[in-house]
Amino acid sequence: MARGLWRAYEDPNSETPFLKDGWCCLDGFVVVAGCLSVFSANTSAVKLLRVLRPLRSIKRFSGMRVLVGTVLASLPLLANVLLLLFWLMSVFSIFMVIAFQGTLRG
């Protein structure tokens, strides 16, 4: 990461600077969060950031990068599916409350 931060100021030999690449920014964030969890007191919020460590492997595997990009691109379409699912579950819940009318109470 130190090498990447060194290249952050428009190195003419690099194709893209470190801070302009989204995957490198994510990698830097995970490293900083890991350092915070080591040096900070018993903070559970910082320890929660350890979940992001597997995301560092995405940068190394190009197939995984394509897969994550595809999943992120499909999120707007999945929002419509989740909205439909929420509506169906709401209708089903209302129907079941009316159908049982307290018969499940001991």
TrEMBL record:
Pfam families: Ion_trans. It is a multi-pass membrane protein. It is found in: Membrane. The chain crosses the membrane at residues 61-79. InterPro entries: Ion_trans_dom (IPR005821), VGCC_Ca_Na (IPR043203), Volt_channel_dom_sf (IPR027359). Residues 16-105 form the Ion transport domain. The keyword Membrane applies. Its main location: membrane. One of its GO terms (molecular function) is voltage-gated sodium channel activity. The keyword Glycosyltransferase does not apply. This is Mitochondrial thiamine pyrophosphate transporter.
